[in-house]
Design a protein that fits this description.
By secondary structure, this protein is α+β, with helices and mostly antiparallel strands. Helices cover 34% and strands 24% of the residues.
Length: 187
């Protein structure tokens, strides 16, 4: 096809048309009726003799019908799960004491720590039983006592690996636990 500056063209597989304003190598630049400059390969364009020929071939009602059919037939893309989201933890457990008890008045530090560790152990056992792959324990920063006790708890399980949780999401106060599904779950 012999294209030249000033030709009116339609874009194949798109509802665009315009006038050629530049041709450089294998790139044709058109200016659309809305004033946008777009680049295409010559094989993506079809030359129309003039805007009046286009109007004679399609009256405005049938042109709108053709354009709407083009847009309707676009493939619906399936929702793809990003790799990062695939590996998101399936369960989060907040071990902050105010999330676990109604009031902590009269409790010793030992009582508080015991409640937090019991909750962590129960949630970990639940995750293992339900074959969940990952669980995040949010423990906060504090003095690090709860974090060290959690690491001791996790190290008792052969089928568990643990590491710092995503810093961007949790900061320094969370541990992510990975439960290996094929390992023996009896402890």
């Amino acid at each position: 096809m012999n294209l030249k500056i000033g030709d009116v063209v339609d874009v194949l597989d798109d509802a665009l048309s315009g006038t050629i304003i530049a041709i450089v190598s294998n790139t044709v630049t058109i200016e659309t009726e809305e004033g946008f400059e777009l680049e295409f390969k010559p094989s993506e364009l079809v030359k129309t003799k003039s805007a009046t020929l286009r109007n004679n071939v399609f009256n405005s009602a049938s042109l709108q019908q053709v354009l709407s059919e083009k847009t309707e037939k676009k493939r619906h893309s399936t929702t793809k799960v990003k790799a990062k989201e695939r590996y998101e933890p399936t369960m989060e457990v907040d071990l902050h004491l105010h999330k676990l008890v109604d009031h902590e008045r009269g409790m010793t530090n030992y009582d508080k720590l015991t409640i937090q560790l019991d909750t962590a152990r129960h949630k970990l056992e639940f995750a293992i039983k339900k074959r969940l792959q990952k669980i995040v324990f949010i423990h906060g920063v504090g003095e690090g006592v709860l974090k060290m006790e959690l690491e001791t708890l996790f190290s008792r399980y052969d089928n568990v690996k643990y590491y710092e949780a995503d810093y961007k999401k949790y900061g320094l106060g969370a541990t992510e636990v990975y439960i290996m599904q094929n390992a023996s779950t009896t402890n």
